[in-house]
Design goal:
The protein has two domains: 179 residues, Vaccinia Virus protein VP39 (Rossmann fold); 66 residues, rRNA adenine dimethylase, C-terminal domain (Helicase, Ruva Protein, domain 3), CATH 1.10.8.100. Helices cover 34% and strands 19% of the residues. The protein has nine helices and nine strands. The model has no long low-confidence stretch (mean pLDDT 92).
Length: 262
Amino acid sequence: MTRVRAKKHLGQHFLKDKEIARRIAESLSLSTAMPVLEIGPGMGVLTQFLLENPLVKLKVVEIDTESVVYLHEHFSGLEIIEGDFLKMNLDKVFDEPFCIIGNYPYNISSQIFFKVLEYKDKIPFVSGMLQKEVAERIASAPGKKAYGVLSVFMQAYYDVEYLFTVSEHVFDPPPKVKSAVIRFRRNDVKQLDCDEKLFRTVVKTAFNQRRKTLRNSLKSLVDKDSPMFADSIFDKRPEQLDVQSFIALTNLVANSTNSSDT
């Protein structure tokens, strides 16, 4: 077998520029030896550089059977998990904290990062390539059009860096959009200073009607006549709030709900 056919339903666009692959591999910047899980290695363009790093203890997860066969043929001894990353119990992949890296399929990149959040205390470091638009969304600061749910959720627990943009012409087949390489480092937040389940609800509800002020978008969570809405924070739109402001907002909603229950 000389190559793997790119499959549209898997969102496969194979990177063919080895220099970019090397730069992605180097974005891990490990200071000590750590387990690393590569998602969607395809034909191993990134894998080859990860294997050269003595600090990387590598496993890969690949859903495409054709790619699995190719990897076995070209990377003897590589530990390959054949399956769907989104359905995996990540606690069973490594017994210790581990990093995640990959040239992430465009069609599931957001789902990948939501899954990372589920295991945030076990995943201190994430890097890789994804659609530029999604990378900009995750790294966006408050006040920007790209700022949204994924921005708030990832930035609550990770320091996010947008590293560099990648042309569509270095892929086979070329995608219709540009890509970007991004990096997350777990911050010091062990737990948010609010009800984290309610935090997720508040953020999603607010951005579900992002053009409205918070006073209007959050009426489904609290009685519309609640005195809570007198607070000036409700004059704002969701993209104007940073993570700490959303935490404060969540506590306002929680206190108002508790007051109405008594």
